[in-house]
Amino acid sequence: MPKKLLIVDDSPVSRAIIKKCLPEGHDFELFEAEDGQQGLEKFKEVKPDATLLDLTMPVMDGFEALEEIKKVDSGAQVIVLTADIQPKAYETVMGLGAAMVVPKPPSSESIADGLSKIGLI
Amino acid sequence: MNTSQTDTTFTKEDGAILEEVMNIAFGKASSELATVVDLRILLNAPKVEFLQADDLLRWIKQDTADNDTLNMIEQNFWGKYTGSAFLAFPTSASKGLVSLFEDDDLPPMDEENPLLVKENLLEIGNILIGACVSKVAELLDDEVTFSPPRLIPRMVVDNLANEARLDPDKVAILIKTVFHIQDKDIKGFLFLVAGEESMAWLKTALQNFMAKF
Amino acid sequence: MILNQILDTIDIGLVILDKDFKVRYWNRWMAMHSGIAFQEIKGVSIFEFYPHLKNKKLLRNFKAVINLGNHYFFPQKLYGYLFPFRPESNFVKDINHMQQSCTMGPLRDDEKVIQYAYISVKDVTEAYIYETNLASALLTLLEKYVEKNDMPAEEAQSILDELLPTSGGEVMAKHSKPPKDKDTHAVIGDQLVDILSEIASGNR
C-alpha cells in the first residue's frame, strides 16, 4: 500500500524539486498544498503518513501550520524544509513537534534520510 | 529567427525557478548573517520581475511611496551574473542602522559624526548585499566580485527617475525583497538589478540548477 | 611562475590569510614597506605583527568574507591606514603613515569552498594630500565669505558637511587646531564637527 505524503510549499518549483528528490523504489501517494491553511485542510482530509512542510508561506506560515497539524494529530510526522536554519527557528519548530529539519535546497540523500528517520522508508 | 533573442527570453517557468533560487539564497543569507552580525535579519520571500529601466524606477517609487525620503546604498557586483544592488531604507531608519555596531571598539566617535554614520550604513549595506548576492551566485555556480558600496544620501523618491542613470531601453531582471532587522524595528528594501548581458547565462544557470535534482 | 612575478612586481600590497588569520602569502610590496620578509611572517598570525588589527570591526568583516563570501572595503577616510607603513615620498612632512585604501575578499579552493581571505593594500597618500589641500583651501574660502557676510553660515556648513567629512589633519593644522592624534584619522571627524559648528555660529 502506498505511503501518503503531503508536500506543503507555496513555490511550485520547490514542490517539483522535493518530488524529484523522493527516493526511488518506494510507492508514494502524493498530495500538495500551496500554503499553510491549505496544507492543514489537506492534512485533515487525507491524514498523510508524513508531511513535508515549508516555513515561509503566505496565508498561514509553516510555524502555525505545524502547530495546527499537531493539534489535529499529536503523532503527525512532519519534516520541515527551510533554507534559513537559525538556532532560534530550529528550536521553535522542534519544540512544536517537527520530526526533523531538512535544509533547502534538499537532496535525494537529505530527503531519504528524513523519511528513513521517521520510519517511512 | 534571432537565436540570441530566443536564448534570453525568460519564460514564466524561468521566473518561478529564479524566485525559488532567490528564496533559498536569501534564506541561507539570513541564516548566515546571524553568525556574522549577531542580529536576526529576516528577508521576505523575494519577488522577481522583468522590467524596462523606466518601469523599474516607477516600480521602486510605487513600493516606497510611504516614505518621503530614502537613503540608498548602491553596490555593483560582477561575475557571470552582473548587476547592481540597491538597499533602500527610510532616512528615519538610518539612526537605528548606525547603532547596530555601537559596541565596536573603534573608532571613538559619537553617533552624530557624519563619517561614522556613513561608514556604518555602508558596512551594514555591504554585509546585507554581499550575503544575498554571494548566496545567489553560490547556488548558480558563479563567483562574484563587488565594487565598494556607495551611499546615496537622502535621495528624494520623486527624483529617482532623474537621478538614476539607467539605460531606458534595456530590460532588467529585478528582484525585490523586504528586509527586517528584528528587535530593532528596521525595515527596508533590497533590489537586485541585472541587465540583459546576464540573461543568457542566467537562463542556462537556472536550467542547470534544476538539473541537479 | 609568471603569476608570481606579477604578484611580486605590482604596485599594490597583497596578503593572504587563512581562517586562523595566519599569513599564507605576503608579496614583495608588503615585505618592502613593512620590513618583514615573507619567510619571517609566513604561517604566523597577522595579529602577532599587527595586534591593532584584532578589533571587532575587522573580525566581523573577516567572518563575513569567510562565511558569506563578502568583500569588505577599508576606506582611507575612516581608517587612514591598515598597515602602519612610512609614506613612500621623502618629502611628506606632516604625515607619519602611508594612507591606504584596502579591500578584503574571499579565495576559494578547487571545490569552490572559501579557504582564505586576501587583503589588497593600495597607497593613496598622494590623493589624500591633494584632497586635504583642496579641502583646506575651500575651508579658508568659505570662512572669508562667511566673515564678509557674502554667504550665510548655514550654507557654508552644508557645503562643508557634504565635502569635508572626508578630509584630514592638514585642514586642522592649517586652522591652528592641532589634531588630537595625528596617527588616528578616525578622530578627525570630531574635530571637523567642532570647526564646522564654530563656523556656523559665526565665531571664527
Structure keywords:
heterotrimer; B: 213 residues; alpha+beta; Chemotaxis protein chec; 8-stranded antiparallel β-sheet; 7 helices; 8 strands; globular; disordered N terminus; C: 204 residues; Beta-Lactamase; 2 domains; 5-stranded antiparallel β-sheet; 10 helices; 5 strands; elongated; disordered C terminus
Description:
The complex is a heterotrimer of chains A (121), B (213) and C (204). Chain A is of the alpha/beta class and 121 residues long. Chain A is built from five helices and five strands, in the order E-H-E-H-E-H-E-H-E-H. Chain A has a single domain (3-114), classed as Rossmann fold (3-Layer(aba) Sandwich), CATH 3.40.50. Chain A has helices at residues 12-21, 36-46, 62-72, 87-95, 108-117, and strands at 3-8, 28-33, 50-54, 78-82, 100-103. In chain A, strand 4, helix 4 (87-95) and strand 5 (100-103) form a beta-alpha-beta unit. Chain A starts with a strand and ends with a helix. With 213 residues, chain B is of the alpha+beta class. In chain B, strands 1, 2, 3, 4, 5, 6, 7 and 8 form an eight-stranded antiparallel sheet that branches. In chain B, a hairpin with a 4-residue loop joins strand 3 (69-78) and strand 4 (83-90). Chain B is globular and about 50 Å long. Mean pLDDT of chain B is 79; it is low at 1-6. Chain C is 46% helix and 16% strand. Chain C has two domains: 2-123, PAS domain (Beta-Lactamase); 128-200, no CATH class. Chain C is of the alpha+beta class and 204 residues long. Chain C is elongated, with a radius of gyration of 20 Å. A five-stranded antiparallel sheet of chain C has the order 2-1-5-4-3. Chain B binds chain C through residues 29, 32-33, 35-37, 101, 103-110, 112-116, 118-119, 122-123, 126-127, 130-131, 134-135, 137-138, 141, 143-146, 148-149, and chain C through 55-57, 60-61, 63-64, 67-73, 75, 77-78, 103, 105, 108, 112, 161, 165-166, 184, 186-190, 193.
- What is the distance, rounded to the nearest whole angstrom, between the alpha carbons of the first and last residues of chain A? 13 Å
Task: Give the topology string of chain B: H per helix, E per strand.
Answer: HHEEHEEHHEEHEEH
The CATH H-level homologous superfamily of chain A: Response regulator
Q: What kind of sheet is the major sheet of chain B?
A: 8 strands, antiparallel
Portion of residues in beta strands of chain B equals 25-35%
In total, the number of domains of chain A comes to 1
The CATH homologous superfamily of chain B corresponds to CheC-like
The portion of residues forming beta strands of chain A comes to 15-25%
Which spans of chain A of ≥5 residues are poorly predicted at pLDDT below 50?
none
As for the CATH topology of chain B, it is Chemotaxis protein chec
Q: Residue ranges of chain B: pLDDT <50 for 5 or more in a row? A: 1-6
> Major β-sheet of chain A, in short?
5 strands, parallel
> Which assembly state applies to the chains in this document?
heterotrimer
Overall morphology of chain B: globular
Number of strands of chain A: 5
Order of helices and strands of chain A, N to C?
Answer: EHEHEHEHEH
